[in-house]
Design brief:
Elements lengths: L11 H6 L9 H40 L36 H6 L3 E3 L4 E3 L6 H9 L19 H7 L6 H20 L13 H14 L32
Helix pairs in contact: 4-6, 6-7
């Protein structure tokens, strides 16, 4: 029977005689500990990567879905009848000449097909400089017989004869931007002496401005891109009273 009078702890002298022993794992235990730690870290990295991958995928997908998809095909057509319904004093004391409504009539009236305006134009309104600027912006101006752009591009003569052909949205952006340059030159450099019915048509101007704004809704979110705006001070040219055209 165990002696109940024996102390619970060894006597102080005996404790000092016991050598200190530290736990030293065996090589097998160290290997198992390393594998367990590595597996835990790899699993944590995998779960974290999976979470952020799913989060980014959802965010990008939601952003794409929140932007409208670009239309596949858009039909652009304008008519410019004689006697523009939007009266302007700019057109007072002007004679209206036209190209008819068929290719044969246009040729008979000495009109040429203008690929920038995609209209036949009377010779006085011809503006080769604007056409060269338009063509220099890249190959988008080339027309095709099909919306899928299959087959070779049409020649300018082929575009004029086709009645309907297809370019792309980039081409229409260039069309609007370059026509505004033509409009400015016609008003400022040309003094408004010869103005084609496209650049004086308010409907076409509104269409082009609306179209360019609408195109910013596709692709990159323009609202998220900062731009610097500098405050300036503009002047205003006021025509002298005696030079004004009376209605």
């Amino acid at each position: 029977m165990e002696d109940e009078s024996a102390p619970f702890l060894e006597e102080p002298g005996k404790l000092e005689s016991v050598p200190e022993r530290r736990y030293v794992p065996t090589s097998k235990a160290r290997k198992f500990s390393f594998l367990t730690s590595s597996s835990t870290h790899l699993f944590t990295i995998f779960i974290t990567s999976l979470f952020w991958g799913a989060f980014l995928h959802y965010t990008l997908k939601h952003q794409r879905n929140s932007l409208p998809s670009a239309p596949t095909t858009t039909t652009i057509s304008f008519s410019h009848p004689e006697g523009n319904t939007h009266h302007s004093t700019l057109l007072d004391a002007s004679s209206y000449i036209h190209c008819g409504d068929t290719r044969a009539t246009a040729l008979a009236l000495n009109c040429t097909y203008d690929i920038l305006a995609n209209h036949w134009l009377p010779d006085p309104c011809s503006d080769p400089l604007s056409v060269r600027e338009y063509q220099a912006s890249g190959p988008s101006w080339h027309g095709y017989a099909s919306a899928a752009h299959t087959g070779p591009p049409l020649s300018i003569a082929g575009m004029a004869e086709a009645g309907v052909y297809y370019t792309n949205m980039h081409d229409h952006i260039l069309h609007c931007a370059t026509l505004w340059r033509r409009q400015f030159r016609a008003f400022f450099d040309g003094g408004g002496r010869a103005l084609d019915s496209l650049i004086v048509d308010p409907e076409h101007t509104m269409h082009c401005s609306d179209f360019l704004v609408r195109m910013t809704e596709y692709g990159v979110d323009m609202r998220a891109i900062p731009i610097q705006v500098e405050v300036g001070f503009a002047g205003c040219w006021v025509r002298d009273q005696e030079d004004e055209v009376c209605e």
